[in-house]
Amino acid sequence: MNRGSWKIRIFIGLAIVAFAFIKKCNNTEENPYTGRSQHITMSPDQEIAIGLQSAPEMAQQHGGLYPDERLQAYVDQVGRKLVQNSIARETPYKYDFHLLADDRTINAFALPGGQCFITYALFKQLNEEQLAGVLGHEIGHVIGRHSAERIASSEFWRTATMGATVGAGDIGNVVGGIGQNTLLKNGRGDELESDELGVLFMIQSGYNPNEMIEVMKILKAAAGPNRVPEFQSTHPDPENRIEKIKEAIAKYQGQS
Ligand SMILES: [Zn+2]
Q1: Weakest mean pLDDT among 43-57, 114-128, 219-233
Q2: Rounded distance, CA 201 to CA 84, Å?
Q3: What is the pTM of this model?
Q4: Ligand 1: distance of its center to the CA of 173 in Å?
Q5: 186 phi and psi, to 5 degrees?
Q6: Could you tell me the distance, in angstroms and rounded to a whole number, from the CA of residue 12 to the centre of ligand 1?
Q7: Which of 132, 140, 216, 232 could form a disulfide with 197 if both were Cys (CB 3.0 to 4.6 A apart)?
Q8: How far is the CA of 10 from the centre of ligand 1 (A)?
Q9: Three-state SS across 122-179?
Q10: Top-ranked range on mean pLDDT: pick from 9-13, 121-125, 223-227
Q11: Is 2 exposed, middle or buried (0-12, 13-18, 19+ CB in 10 A)?
Q12: Whole-number Å distance between alpha carbons of 87 and 243
């Protein structure tokens, strides 16, 4: 390789990285419901579309929907109560709450745009207040736009990595597509934000927010000493989750 092409390659690489950064800055907006500034590249309508599109496949992976209509209606009713009594009501999202047939995997998750799921394995261990805690937490992921944020950051890294690999003279494999991990894998910050929002929604809906602490204990007990439940693969368990929940309860309980 001669010196000229080396310089051009570095220049193009830097230009691509710069482009990624500028795009990132242009796509930074304040979340109107959480007040947090975040990097997002899609509209709420697109989030809803992605969620609706992925929902059947996600349900299929957990044995489909639980067949008892009465229990589906109950889960929906608790979820809807949380939406009606909180800021979730004012968002453009289309909330749906589904009970999955899976009675072995302890899990709950939310797709962007409002599709929320809980497995029967987790559901059967919860009373109504605890169910409200889990669903409130999942609504928190929707309102916090955590999936959209992860998709945007994976786009950013893909572009930035492309710049770096071009600059280094090695056009490597750039992984494309939105994987399930991008949709579901929440970071520590996402979890704490969702816990806090969940606590707020519980209080606003007349549920006892201390039951959120019980949910954490149930999840911990379900994990056992050395078994990592599915829930933890999409919901990392930060050490101080219960501490932060207590802080959120103290913060919001006086306000409502
Ligand atoms: Zn979560």
Answers
A1: 219-233
A2: 10
A3: 0.82
A4: 31
A5: -90, 145
A6: 39
A7: 140
A8: 41
A9: HHCCCCHHHHHHHHHHHHHHHHCCHHHHHHHHHHHHHHHHHHHHHHCCCCCCCCCCCC
A10: 121-125
A11: exposed
A12: 24
Neighbours of ion ligand 1 (CB under 5 A): 186, 191, 194, 235
- Whether residue 216 contacts residue 242, with contact meaning beta carbons closer than 8 Å, is answered with yes
What separation in Å is there between the alpha carbon of 6 and the centre of ligand 1? 46
- How far apart CA 192 and CA 26 sit, in angstroms, is 26
Q: What is the pLDDT of residue 159?
A: 73
Q: Tell me the pLDDT tens digit for each residue of 193-243.
A: 999 999 999 999 999 999 999 999 888 887 765 555 555 656 666 557 889
Judged by DSSP in three states, 92 sits in coil
b/e per residue 165-201 (b: at least 16 CB within 10 A): bbbeeeeeeeeeeeeeeebbbbeeebbbbbbbbbbbb
CA distance 162 to 137: 36
Of 186, 207, 210, nearest in space to 77 by CA: 207
> What is the rounded CA–CA span in Å between residue 188 and residue 237?
8
Pair of tokens at residue 8 = 């051009």
Strand 37-39 relative to strand 28-30: parallel, antiparallel, unpaired? antiparallel
